[in-house]
Amino acid sequence: MGRYFKNIWDGIVTVLIGMKVTWRHLFTPAVTIQYPTVKLKLPERARNRLYVNMDDCIGCDQCSMACPVDCITIETIKSTPDVDLGLTSVGTKKRLYVPRFDIDIAKCCYCGLCVPPCPTECIKMTDVFEFSEYERSNLIYNFATMTTAEIDEAKAKLAAPEKEQAEKKAAPKPGAPAAAKPAGQATPAQKPGEKA
Question: Cβ of 57: how many Cβ atoms within 10 Å?
């Protein structure tokens, strides 16, 4: 009989211990954020969606090489000496066109390893965290600002000097010695059997 009441008492005590936290919060005013109209302020160093300022990008490919999941794709075209692409905001001279700068946010692991290597600080993590999509292809962000016509023009400008250089390499140099003739072969003015 004593064991019966002890079991009842143990059950009541166990429930009271378990409900202690519930009772403590039962009389505390609830604080509910009315999301999405009200949003919490994110920490200053929060890692969310990436942004690239193409005016500062020099096409160095440092961010792409640092990315552990290969979510950054960069293509560049060399500029010719007669073209001035301008300077970045930190004073670095731009020498390359950047016709393609894509970031696949679906692959991104938000590690932030692409940000520190950038010499012009053009790539950065933003505080934007709401960017869900129905199609995965919509998560590939294209930051390049060049049009198709501008890309074709840049490629054509680069192709002309490259063609000239190839022609110069292929042409024989003036004053270069003629190719040596094999021994024993007669010259046109020399008859076979005569000594030179």
Answer: 23
Ordered domains of the chain (ranges, CATH) = 50-148 (3.30.70.3270)
| 62-80 residue pLDDT tens | 999 999 999 999 999 998 8
SS3 184: coil
DSSP state letters, 81-132: TT----B-TTSPBP-EEEEEEEEETTT-----TTSTT-TT--EEE-S-----
DSSP output for 25-38? HHTSPP----TTTS
**pLDDT tens digits, 122-138:** 999 998 888 889 999 99
User: Who has greater pLDDT, 57 or 179?
Assistant: 57
Cα 189 to its chain centre, rounded Å, is 69
The rounded distance, in Å, linking the Cα atoms of 149 and 161 is: 20
Cα–Cα distance for residue pair 29/22, rounded to 1 Å: 13
Distances from the Cα of 38 to the Cα of 41, 46, 105, angstroms: 10, 18, 25
Which secondary-structure segment (H or E) carries 17? helix 2-26
- In the block, residue with structure tokens 């010259």: 187
- Whole-model pTM: value is 0.65
